[in-house]
Amino acid sequence: MSRELDEQTEVGELFINSLIRSQLRLALVVGGGFMLILLGVPVLLAFLPVIASLTLFTVPLPWFLLGAGVYPLVIVCGALYVRSAARNEQRFRDLVDDV
Fold first, then answer.
1. Is the CB of residue 30 less than 8 Å from the CB of residue 80?
2. Is residue 81 within 8 Å of 27, Cβ to Cβ?
3. What is the pTM of this model?
4. 3-state secondary structure of 1
5. What whole-number distance in Å separates Cα of residue 46 and Cα of residue 31?
6. Which residues are CB-contacts of 61 (< 8 A; sequence separation ≥ 6)?
7. Membrane-crossing residues (predicted)?
């Protein structure tokens, strides 16, 4: 199989396109989940206005959530993406080695 990838045959191209599609799908899912959670904070505040009046260390809770709460979310999403992308690539390597 690796020979077909090296020679860029139609079968090799099919496998490469499959890997690219799976990585794109993963990126869209992780990015969409991140945006959904990020946009969920203002929606939560709109439906529960009592949260907007809370303070944490004299900082309004909405500011704290959007200012400091985003960074752990970015780290978790990034780690999830890297781990899943590495798993996709490993599956691709296993598939190429098996054939």
1. yes
2. yes
3. 0.75
4. coil
5. 23
6. 51, 52, 54, 55
7. 26-51, 63-82
* Mean per-residue pLDDT of the chain: 87
3-state class (DSSP) for residue 9: coil
What is the pLDDT at residue 30? 95
DSSP labels, 38-95: HHHHHHHHHH-HHHHT-EETTEEHHHHHHHTSHHHHHHHHHHHHHHHHHHHHHHHHHH
The position carrying tokens 């959007």 is 66
Q: What is the pLDDT of residue 1?
A: 67
